Amino acid sequence: MRTLPFAVFALVCGLGLGASHVAQAKEKWVCMKEGTEIKVKGKKPKDKEKDCTSQGGTWEKAQHDHEKQESGTGGSW
Questions:
Q1: 59: part of which helix (H) or strand (E)?
Q2: What does the DSSP 8-state code read for residue 51?
């Protein structure tokens, strides 16, 4: 019965890694104008995109900064 504690440990670790991948998979969109991110209003992404274009900006995916790690998404020991 030594495999049972290992199986539980592996399951818990696997679930933790899966949650971090889901958090990283979420895309962030920003409004850019002349190389600067500008603030937009709206609750839904479509509303924010509409506000962005009305301000003369472009609605685009945020560039991922691999040097900066968000709190809670790490998998280190």
A1: strand 58-61
A2: H
Q: What are phi and psi of 75, to 5 degrees?
A: -120, 20
0.70 cut: is pTM over it?
A: no
Q: 3-state SS string over 22-46?
A: HHHHCCCEEEEECCEEECCCCCCHH
* Three-state SS at 58: strand
Q: What is the pLDDT of residues 15-45, one digit of tens each?
A: 554 554 555 557 899 999 999 999 999 999 9
Q: What is the rounded CA–CA span in Å between residue 17 and residue 32? A: 32
Q: Can you give the pLDDT at residue 72?
A: 59
- Asked if 31 and 38 count as a contact pair (C-beta separation under 8 A), the reply is yes
